[in-house]
Every structure is written in C-alpha cells, then in structure tokens.
Amino acid sequence: MALLRVRHCRALLYCRRAPPRCPACGGDLRAAGLAAAPVRLRCPFRHGHGQPHAFLIRPSRGTFLHDYRGHCDLHVGITNSRGLVYNYDQEGVHRAASGWEQCISIPLVQPDMWELLQHWDNLLEEFSLEEAWLPHRYEEQQHNCYTFALAFVNRVRQARGRAALSKGEFTQRFLLPHTSEASRYLALQQQLQHSDVYVVPLAEQQHHSGAGSHSLLE
Ligand SMILES: [Zn+2]
Question: Start and end of every MKRN2 opposite strand protein-like N-terminal domain (predicted)?
C-alpha cells in the first residue's frame, strides 16, 4: 500500500490516505492548495531478478516489508545480466533464479560501460569458481556473502584502473544512502501500523532522516 507524505504548517504528515484536517494544527488540508498535496514515497525495494548488474541486499530469512524489525541477518549477492543472483554462503556459491524478489538494489554498471556489460557474466562466473569461494572457506564473520560480493566489485574496479574499496568505504559511499532510505521507509511503515497519521515536526526532520541509518549493515 502506498505511503504518502503531506507537508503542512510546521510538520510533515506521513499517512496511507491524506486526512481531511492536519493533525498538527487542525487546519483544513483540502483548502491548503498545491503545497500540501500528498506526495507518494518511492518504495525502496526492487524485484532483484529484474535488476541486472546489481548489488542486492535482502534479509537472510523472510522479507523486509513483512519480517524485518530493525536488526536481523542480511544476505547480499550480485546479479548477472539475466538477473541470476550469485551469492556465497557455507554451501559455496549459489546462482539463484528465485528468492530475491524484494531487495535493496544498488546498480553497479552504468549503461555506457558497454565493454564491461559484455563481459560481466563471464567475469562473474569465473570469479565464482575461484578457490576462495569453496564451501569450506566460508567463515561467518570474516569470509561471507559480503566478502564475496565486495571482492567481485573490487576485481572489476581494479581491472578498470580504479582503487579497491575497503569494506568501510563501500558501505559508506554506496550502501548507506540506500539502506538509510530503506530503514526510514520501514520505520514509517511500522509507525503507520499503530496510527493513521505519523507527524514529524519539521525541526526534527534533520534528526529523523538519519535515524536507523546504521542498523542495516553495521
Ligand atoms: Zn498543519
């Protein structure tokens, strides 16, 4: 169901359906004009198998919208050109054609990188056959799904003459903008399970927008 945001007086109102009156000031929202028109928030989750050449994140069990409660194990993978998700766990590398239907998706390749696009599937397949990704090498903290996906990203970067990214750099620069958006969306979803309208005073918006930004991957 859609999530809407309405801006009125000194507040942002989040709701499923715009109320007739502003719960912050009591004013008539229908008379408030374009400035108070509801804006539909973009759902941050994507069907992962329809996202080629991407870094995908999903909960290890269940889905973000139904099961995620702030802290749970996450699993990551990389898609090839056909949306097959290469992901590493204690059983080795999987090439999944299902199970990634609701993901945070981070595109890795720009459309003008045509040479990389041509070789992507072979690079990913060959990389996943390397000895480092045999089942017995798996280690929950230090050599896991994230190690696999980041090592592939770095392999591609280095082949293009770019510096490898540390886990911290990758998380900060590429993942956090997406995971914080997803955290905010899920937090609003949860608020709206208990009330019809969730009011955020504009003065708190700054603080609010950073809430939960470290809970997904740190
Ligand atoms: Zn108001």
Answer: 3-29
